[in-house]
């Protein structure tokens, strides 16, 4: 039995050695031309862009300011889950598309369409697609925030070209902190009337001796009624849209 096993192993080793001598390993790997390699790189880049698309939407559009303002509004009303997060995010997305529609149209017309028609290269298309977003961010970024990141870049020895051709690595973080700041400013103005209602209700309940009754339970219907009577959603959305240049 042992001899049979050793004989089979020796036969398998000889067969493998002969096959390795006859077969060319390089023939198993297909030759890839430069055009095919470029297509693979483009496809990989497209998949990468699609993967980070939600992050790009937040970073270079008006979404940040809008969703922060809506979140603070819900907190000011005293409603923790109404409207639901899905509703607030969806509304913020559609308002973002409305505000950014001129930017999207220009990017599509000047960059995406010529690229699909093979009239410009990928590098030119990337520049033409980013130019509308760069212009939008330059119009809405706060000068102090932009100077902060320009100064930080210069401190690290980086050369930053200012003006309309400023680098995205400097413009995007400056734009984001500007949007966060403006979102909190709008949120403060929205929450202030609700705070006054809470104070009035708390004073009245304390004067009536209702120590065990939370003032927020009484003030919540009045805040909702006040927001509905002044047509709050119309005013809120209109103010947000008009706040963008």
List the helices and strands and how they pair.
Elements: H1 2-22, H2 34-51, H3 53-60, H4 63-77, H5 85-116, H6 122-140, H7 143-155, H8 168-207, H9 215-229, H10 232-242
Describe this structure in words.
The protein is built from 10 helices and no strands. With 245 residues, the chain is an all-alpha fold.
Q: How would you summarize this macromolecular structure in one to three sentences?
A:
The protein has 245 residues and is mainly α.
Helix content bin: over 70%
Order of helices and strands: HHHHHHHHHH
Please state roughly what percent of the residues sit in beta strands, choosing from under 5%, 5-15%, 15-25%, 25-35%, 35-45% or over 45%: under 5%
End-to-end CA span: 88 Å
Overall pLDDT metric? 76
Report the C-alpha radius of gyration, rounded: 31 Å
Sheet bearing the most strands, described? Answer: none
Tell me the number of strands.
Answer: 0
| Tally of alpha and pi helices | 10
Structural class: mainly alpha
Shape: elongated
Low-confidence stretches: 3-26
Summary tags:
single chain, 245 residues, mainly alpha, elongated, disordered N terminus
């Amino acid at each position: 039995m042992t001899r049979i096993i050793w004989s089979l192993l020796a036969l398998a080793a000889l067969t493998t050695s002969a096959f390795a001598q006859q077969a060319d390993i390089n023939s198993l790997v297909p030759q890839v031309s430069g055009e095919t390699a470029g297509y693979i790189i483009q496809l990989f880049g497209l998949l990468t862009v699609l993967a980070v698309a939600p992050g790009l939407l937040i970073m270079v559009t008006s979404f940040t300011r809008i969703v922060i303002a809506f979140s603070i509004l819900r907190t000011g009303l005293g409603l923790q889950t109404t409207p639901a997060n899905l509703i607030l995010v969806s509304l913020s997305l559609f308002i973002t598309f409305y505000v950014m529609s001129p930017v999207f149209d220009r990017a599509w017309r000047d960059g995406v369409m010529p690229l699909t028609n093979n009239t410009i290269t990928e590098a030119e298309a990337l520049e033409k697609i980013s130019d509308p977003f760069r212009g939008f961010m330059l119009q809405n970024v706060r000068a102090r925030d932009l100077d902060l990141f320009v100064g930080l870049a210069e401190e690290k020895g980086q050369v930053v070209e200012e003006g309309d051709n400023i680098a995205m690595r400097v413009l995007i973080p400056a734009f984001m902190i500007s949007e966060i700041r403006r979102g909190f400013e709008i949120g403060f103005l929205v929450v202030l009337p609700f705070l006054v209602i809470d104070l009035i209700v708390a004073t009245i309940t304390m004067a009536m001796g209702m120590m065990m009754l939370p003032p927020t339970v009484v003030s919540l219907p009045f805040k909702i009624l006040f927001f509905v009577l002044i047509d709050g959603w119309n005013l809120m959305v209109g103010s947000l849209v008009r706040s963008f240049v």
